Amino acid sequence: MNQIFTMSKKDTIHIELTDKSSKKIKEFEKIKWAVADQEHYGKPVDFTKNKYKFVAKNEDGEITGILDLMTEANLAFVEGLLIGSKFRKQGIGSKLMKQAEDFAKKNKCTKVYLETNEDWEAVEFYKKLGYEVTGKHEDHALGQRSLIFTKFL
């Protein structure tokens, strides 16, 4: 998926949309982000995005729930929490969240954040776990309003 965007005839900059990172692109990012980190944070920061999947299973080995976590620098983002409908209200979601929080803390994360739709039952669930609403997105995915929740570890 490479696409070139042309500007005016006298423009000397050409923009390319690509889904691949060449050696040249990776080297540019490595050098330039190190300079930007030094300017903004006074030190180099590892912004590598690491993704993890926590999987809950019952004694029969059946998957009951999954939590997707992404860490970057000192932040942990819960990308998704999914509990099978017949396994809800059994504490599985709370246990997955606790494991993810403990893991994040061990990996030097200072806060966990996530997003959920404003009118979903998950709102009360996250509040019960100590998460606070710290922002919202209007007209977000499929026109829904979503809430951003944060918990400091």
Automatic annotation (TrEMBL):
GO terms for molecular function: N-acetyltransferase activity. Residues 12-153 form the N-acetyltransferase domain. InterPro entries: Acyl_CoA_acyltransferase, GNAT_dom, NAT_camello-type. Keywords: Transferase. It holds the Pfam family Acetyltransf_10. This is N-acetyltransferase domain-containing protein. The keyword Transferase applies.
